[in-house]
Structure formats: structure tokens, C-alpha cells
Amino acid sequence: MKRMGWASSSLTVVALLLSACSDSGPKTLSEDDFIDELNSICDDASRDLRRLDGADRNFFDDVLEIMQSSAEALAKLSPPSDLKGDYDDFVDNLDDTIKETENIRDAVDDDDQAAIEDSSAELSNLNDDGNDLADSLGADDCIDIGSGSGGSTDSSDPDNTDPASTDPDTTTANTPLPIDPTVPTDPPATDPPDPTTAPTPAPTTAPVPEMTVPESNSGGSQALDITTEFLPPAGFEWVQIDITGISAPSSPLLVPIIDSYFFGRAENAATGEIALLSLTILNLAEGQQWTEEQLAEMADYELLSGSPTEVASAAGRTVYVAQGVGEAGDLDAGVSFLERASVGLLVFPGSDVLGIIDAFFAANLMGG
Description:
- This protein is α+β, with helices and mostly antiparallel strands and about 375 residues long.
- Helix content is about 30%, strand content about 15%.
- The protein is built from 7 helices and 10 strands.
- The chain has helices at about 10-15, 30-50, 60-75, 85-110, 115-135, 290-300, 355-365; strands at about 220, 225, 235-240, 245-250, 260-265, 275-280, 310, 320-325, 330-335, 340-345.
- Strands 2, 3, 5, 6, 7, 8, 9 and 10 form an 8-stranded mixed sheet that branches.
- The radius of gyration is 22 Å and the shape is elongated.
């Protein structure tokens, strides 16, 4: 799959929280005790990271605080001699990770896309190196910190009831794909939108769980499982479903430009909301963009041919919303475009279409 642009989530930025300590410590631990201590610190860091909201303006500062706290805890450990070499490499890796996290924080504040791409690539490399080191140390819980894939989770721990946390029994590890965050300059060629008619979300009510995927649109290639590559919106958890009957649009205008089409279902245990999310990644050539016709065709597909209204989300993102769509007219839909991607959403009426789309972008730190 072609990977484009940048993406940086808590998983990518801080997967190596455990990567530091000094030679000081009360005494040299046995190998088993040392690994147990590493895993315990990693579990604590993972729990704290999963609680962070990527849309919060203090996100990177909070990440750095967790990193520093973990480094202080690790500095109190002293590794056995046969693990010292890898452990010293952890020290250097954390130093580099902290510096690069500070760099990407500053780049995001300055909206410096080139610097964001550079830091994101470097953090990805640090993440890979750190995972290799964790594996060589035998600290399995220290691989992919924050993703829910490496650390063990005690279901009796009340901290694990946070609805924004990943449930390891129902989800798989999520590593966001890089996506170009530039917003397209041409909106979908649809009826002129009336920004004054933005829908007002009704009070959230618990929808019935029998929500199924509409079959009113024909499809192209088989959809991929979104839960294996992306994080759910904050407050939601992925729920495994059978997507064998779900496919990308088969329009001749879209088939040549679609690289991959992801689909999945997310649920909010606190509110009962159900969200069907899709993400389309394009394989456009350098300098190529969506055409007006392609944008209109994609909007028509994601909105189930409903009449769109252009609305600005709280994050300033342009979202096209259609209400009362689907065969029974009992769904609301939304779609938002990046230069090389689009995100679609289907929910029951009363759900916050704009907020859920913003939360999905924020969880995976996609721009737009």
C-alpha cells in the first residue's frame, strides 16, 4: 500500500517511553526482576497515553510529561550486565525521542508541514528501533506503548474502564497510516450548500444495536478492516464485524485513483452511539488532486446519494452532511476530504456527526 504524507499519534510519538535510565540504582536486579519492572512501568505509561486526547492543545506537552515521568522511574533501575548494552541504547533512544517530540510539537504549533513530515519520519524510525530493543530485552509489554497491543491489561483495574481505552479482547493493535494533511482546494460539485442550515445535533439517545450497512450503493474492491490500521474516535471502541460484503465505490471516476478503502464499526459504551466509519486513501500521482467530478462522486457514495449541506466542524474542518439517508431514511451521514483521502461516517439521527469526524481525525492526527 502506498503511504503518503505524515501521521503522528500517541502510538508513534511515544512508543519508546521506557527507553531510558542511568547506571544508578539501589542494586543490580536479576534479569527476571528487571524485566518485570520494565513491563510494569510500560503498563503505567500505556494507560496514561491512552487517556490523552489528540485534539487537546496540550497533547504534546502531556505526552512529554509522561515520557519524563517514565524516564525518572526507569532511572532508578539497574540492569543485569548482560542486558546493559541494549539498556544503554534505550537511554539514547529516549533522549532522541523526547527531542523529536518537542520538534513535532513546535512544528504543529507553527503549521510547518515540512518539519512535521521530517519529525514524523524520525519518530517512526525511533519507534521501530525501540521495538527491536524491547524485544531483545524480553520486555514484551514495552512494544508499541499506548496501543494496547504490547502491555498486559488487568481487567480488574478500574483505570481500564476508561471508555477511550482500547479493549484488548475486542480490538487489535492500531498503527495509523501516514496521510497527507493538506485540505483540497476544490469542494465536491454538488448543489450549492447553505452554511446557515447546519444541523443541530439532537440529544444523544442509545440507538438500537441492529444497525446494518446500507446496500444501496454498488461497490468495487473489497474493503479493508479499519481496526487494524487506525484508532477509533475518542470515547469509542472498535467492534469486530464481518465486512466481506462491503466494498469501495465502483465508479469509473474513482476506481483508478483509489488505493485502499477501509471500513469498520465503533461503539461508545457510555452513550450507546454506533458509528460506521470509512476511510479512502488515494494513489494520486505527485501534484495530482481530486477533480470536482471525483469529489462529487465520492460525496454521493459516502452520503448515500443524500443532499449535502456544507458545515464547518468545531475544529474548522469542512464536512458535508446529509440527513435521513439510507433505504429507510433512518441514518445521518457525513464526509470530509483531505487532499489524498476522505473520511465517511454513518450514524443514527441524534449523533454528533461533526464531533465524531473531528474525533477520528484527532485520534489519528490527520490534518484537514
